[in-house]
Amino acid sequence: MASIPSPVVAIKINEWYKHIKRFNVKEAQMLREEVRKDIDVMEEDEQAVLYFQLMEFRHQLMTDYVQPSKEPLEKSDYLKAVEGQGKKMSAILEYYFNFFQGMYEFKNGEFIRAIVFYKRAEKRLEQVGEELERAEFYYKLSEVFYHMKQTHVSMYYVGLSYDTYKAQKSNSLYMIREINCLTVMAGNFIDFECREKALPHLMSALEKSKAISNKPMIVKSLFNIGCCYKGLGDFNRALAYFNQVILEGEPINAIELLLVYYELSLFHLSQKEFIEGERFFKRGLEEAKNRKNDLFLSLLMLLEILFLKTANLSEVLNSLEKLENERGYPYMEDLALEAARYYNENGRMDESVKMYEKVMYARKQIQRGDCSYEC
């Protein structure tokens, strides 16, 4: 059997990647199987093999995003193979390697490491000719900077990405990324304490999610709107949207169920509505255990100590120590502030001061995040 020219296989890998970016799981899987067969009979080409191995890893990331598993994503054998070969990659493959590695680190909550790899990829971005591919890269950067509370930087990158996706009116497939961009923009406005500016973006994201009948995105949008109304002090509307999250999210086992159970637990317990608070606390605890989510187990345990037990200071401090990481600091800030209010309302002023100190500590750690990665 005659060998297949490597450029032919590379073109097919490019098509595979297009389907991955559009979350076309069925089409991506079909091309994946075709490429696997072609690689076995392809003419010798190290760069094409490296490209294939990188795309295998990217395919796994896409699959895990569309159909989240209860087990955390393990580092792909294909990426290990690429790292272990020690062969010089072309500039474009170096871009993809660092870009995909950054996505992997972000998925695992290693935001600083993600930024390191994204910034390395950015140095090779001039090798990427396709405008939509650059838009994808800019979106990913905006996403990780948003999580690191680098609000101005995030807003800059998400603006670059959104303008490109919004221009793709002829292709509804890119509306998913348009919705993602609107969500990040809204999150940045919230961090700017401009929730009234965030709300129209979130409403637009919900409208577009409904237009493409994307249930997970509908649920995510409902949750985000609920959080925005909560921040605006409109608790009745917040609760209405949170309850919609449960109605829409339970049939698809949405990850937002865990988030909304936590939010409802916190809201009702802080309002001394203990029957409702305990009900959502138990549902949240069950959900966190089922998903093996250590972060939310820690958060819920802190709520239990604070509102359902004696709010012993040493126990609260021990619980807050479990949030000593990049993902945990924003929650540490919020819960330490909640604890400070609780102690203040109950006349426990010394303990309240300790909690305010924790709030400032958490804020400092968040702000220092941008000094911890290389340029």
Automatic annotation (TrEMBL):
<dbReference type="InterPro" id="IPR019734">
    <property type="entry name" value="TPR_rpt"/>
</dbReference>
<dbReference type="InterPro" id="IPR011990">
    <property type="entry name" value="TPR-like_helical_dom_sf"/>
</dbReference>
<protein>
    <submittedName>
        <fullName>Aspartate phosphatase</fullName>
    </submittedName>
</protein>
<dbReference type="Pfam" id="PF18801">
    <property type="entry name" value="RapH_N"/>
</dbReference>
<dbReference type="Pfam" id="PF13181">
    <property type="entry name" value="TPR_8"/>
</dbReference>
